[in-house]
Structure formats: structure tokens, C-alpha cells
Amino acid sequence: MKVTRLASTLVLIWAAAGHGAASAAAAAAPAQPVAKAPATAPNVTPPAATTPDGEAAPLPPPSSAAQHLYASAKNDILQVRSLLKSGRTQSSVGSGFLIGTSNLVVTNYHVVSQFALDPDTYVGEWVDTGGQRGNVELLAVDVLHDLAVLRVSRNGTGFFKMPPQLARLTQGQYLYSMGNPLDLGFAISEGAYNGVIARSFYDQLMFTGPINSGMSGGPSVTADGSVAGINVSKRLDGELVSFLVPARYAQDILNKVETQQKAPTDFTAVVASQLLAHQTAMVNQLLSSPLSLKPMGPYQVPVRESEQMRCWGRSNVKADKPFTVDDASCAMESAIFVSGSLQTGQIAIRHQFLRSAGLDKLRFAQLASASFRNEHFGSNKDSRLTGPNCTEDFVKNKDLPLRAVLCVRAYRKFAGLYDFALLTASTDQGLMSLQSRLDARGVSYENGLRLSRVFLDSLSLKPTAEAAKKGGAK
Fold first, then answer.
1. CA of 51: how far to CAs of 58, 68, 146, 182, 245, in Å?
2. Whole-prediction pTM value?
3. What is the DSSP string of 160-205?
């Protein structure tokens, strides 16, 4: 772990929280350099399932209902391609669909992210089931819900509508997803709606049917053709567990397009603005109530368990080891896709409790120090973010002395966004060590400091029986 001594940001945290006498104005914020980040092929929709022979698994044969729907809808389904301007070679492929009889197309943001963020290098193209093609014009993006609206040089037949009153869904009803799986040709897959998933920060619909790469951005409709959602992703660790963006979010972005005078000229600024709005909501929700405190040895550690954030624990107790490590980790189960190389808007917490009965204090101190040094905060070679600016200090909150390192990295392409990493280690015990880490990705500088203060203040010693007795006597 490389630590560079800077004007102490930790002093700023402590002073603002009332724990130190240093002036907050004397603490300097990390620099905010401006540079560029590469846009590479989207990875939100994972690779397709394969057969034991390693070949792509075919979609199940469509039912008669699916065949009828596809025959009616196929003229309004498009393939959306991202091409290198130089040579017009294909870089990524997704799907989209024409709304009503207009020339507006709904697709996923991650399908268009390359030419949205790097229009000097990439350009968009549409291809329909009849082989017609043309360039696309990007009108709007919603990075938080993974949606985009395009304008193309042809009109829809009117099959896909987005009425003010959307279809009501019941768990178990059939849905039909359409798109261009694996760039093999246009297809339809059949599955069932199984409720709203709340583990993502924004609602998604669970679809128990196959959605393969290339189908991202395609429509998922009910048996009568009403749009229920937009194909977005699938789980690799399950069978036929796929996800849809609810149609109401597509309705919202289409309404926005209707009212805007002209399309933005800088979608990087649009994405940055949306990410800043997300991080404000994310941090406010996380800190809307005090963090839960869990016991680890003689310590209490802060965690957050919610629909969006899940926690796990484990221990490596082994008879042949002279020390034991207990782990407790909490992390948000979703992140915001920005580009093929960048996902952000996520918070994670980790605690490790090391203890030993078989080592002397010197050897245990070496073990604990090695564990602390092994933490990684990123490199200076990352094209997406600046190198980490780190500051180290020894601090004490209410009752726990800590060694703490705070590292901050600025986003090169999205002004106002940072990654924060706070690492702490207890220094009050000779044969025990609590090492904790907070990671906040894609937050404002102010919210990064706010999270760090709360985290530092929440680490504590467990109340002793005597202290509990005194507290009850008050």
C-alpha cells in the first residue's frame, strides 16, 4: 500500500466532527484533473449460455402465441450497432424497437454508451429485419435506468405503443422478449413475469426466460402486445433469471424527448449530472438512519442491511493456524453502468477481526501490519480515474484508537465525482486487530467526507458490563 503524505484530509474529517482542533480550512482537497476515459464494449449483459460442446445454446422453440406476436412485431424490431468511425467496423451490438408510428427507438443506454461518450470514435447504426439500415441520432439517455432514445430514418408500423396507462402485470403471466441474440438473427423468447426486484437501487422486473447478449434494448411484451419492459441483463449464476427495465421508465424518457427543444450536444455532461443525482439519493438513503452495530470480539462495527445492501460473514478457524480471521462484508448488489470499463454508484463495507493465541505480540503485529499494507487503492495508470491521493494519521474517536488511511480518486471524465476508500486498524490490543474498510464509488467530495465521518464515529469498543450498569443507573 502506497501512502503519500498530503495536507491531512483525516484532520478535516475529525475537525468537522468535533474531534480535533485543526482548522478545516487548512485541509486541502485532492486535485480534480481533467482527462478522458475509454469506452469499450458493454458488459452489463453477460455472455450467452453454452452447450457442453462450447457452442451457444439455442433459444427454445417459440409457442404459437410467440409466433403470432413475432410475425406482428418483427417490422418494428431493430438491431442497434456501435461502429468504429474509422472503417465502419462493428464494435458492439444490441436491439431496440420503434414506438408507435414514430421514428423514435427505445433501447438500453449500455447499447449506445460508446457513441454517447465518445462520438469522435464511434457512430450508431440501425438495421431492421428486412435488411434496411441507416445512421441513428441519439436524443436522450437515462444512465440510472439504462435507457436511451434514438431517432432513425424510418417509421414504425404502430405495433409497439407506450400508452399513458401501462399494462398491469401479475406474477406468472407469460411475457415475450424480442431482439437479436448473439448477432445470429432476430428472435423471440418466452418466459414468465415474476415480480419486481428491489435489490437494485432502481426497480427491475424479473423475467424467467432467456435473454442473451444482443437482445439488450429489445422489447418484452404481454400476450396482447403491450410493452411490459425492456431487456437489460441476466444472471450467470442461475438458470433463466433475467431482468427487464420497467416500461414506465421508458415512458418517462419518451415524455422528456417530447418536451426538449433539441438533443444535448454533450452526453458526457448529461451522464455526469445523472450520476451526481444518484449519489445524493444513495448516500441520503444509506445515512437516513444510524448504521447497525454488530459485535466482533471486543469491538462494535457498523454495517447496513437493506434491500439494496446485503451482508455476509465467514471465519477461517483452522487447527493448524496460529491465528484466526473473522470477516463481515456488506455491499450494494447493483452498480450504475457507465461504460464497458466503468461501473459506479456503489458502497461497500468490510471488517476483519484478527486474533491469535499462538503468536507473540511482535509476530502478531507483523501479521496485522502485513494485512494492512496489502490493501490496494488503485494505480496512477488508470485512464478512468486519477491516481489515489492518500493521507494517513493516528486518530481516536469516543473510545477506540485507530490507524487510518483515507484515499481519494477523481473521475477524469465526470467532474465532481470521486471514489473514496477509508481503511482503519485498531491499535488498542497486542494480540487482536480490527481492520475495517469503507469504499464509496462515484460520490461527491462532500458526501465522501460525510460517509467517512459516520464510519469512523461508528467504530467502537463493546460496552463493558460495568459501563452498561452505569448507563442504566442514570
1. 9, 28, 30, 14, 28
2. 0.82
3. S---SSPPP--TT-EEEEEE-GGGS--EEEEEEEEEEE-SSSS-EE
Q: Could you report how far apart the first and last alpha carbons of the chain are, in Å?
A: 46
- Domain spans, the chain: 9-30+272-473, 64-265
Q: Give the contacts of 286 (CB within 8 A, at least 6 positions apart).
A: 304, 309, 347, 451
Closest CA to 109 of 250, 248, 257: 250
Q: Which residue has the cell 431487456?
A: 231
Asked if residue 373 lies in contact with residue 434, where contact means CB atoms within 8 angstroms, the answer is no
pLDDT tens string, the chain, 474 residues long: the values are: 443 323 334 444 443 333 333 333 333 332 222 222 333 333 334 333 344 454 555 556 667 888 899 999 999 999 999 999 988 888 889 999 999 999 999 999 999 999 999 999 999 999 999 999 999 999 999 999 999 999 999 999 999 988 888 888 999 999 999 999 888 889 999 999 999 987 778 999 999 988 988 999 999 999 999 999 999 988 877 778 899 999 999 999 999 999 998 999 999 999 999 999 999 999 999 999 999 999 999 999 999 988 888 999 998 876 678 889 999 999 998 899 999 999 999 999 999 999 988 888 999 888 888 888 888 898 889 999 999 999 999 998 888 999 999 999 999 999 999 999 999 999 999 899 999 999 999 999 999 999 999 999 999 999 875 444 444 444
The CA distance from 97 to 99, in Å, is 6
CATH code for the structural domain at 64-265? 2.40.10.120
Q: Dihedral (C-alpha) 306, 385, 279, 459: value to the nearest 10 degrees?
A: 50
d(Cα 214, Cα 231) in Å, to the nearest integer? 10
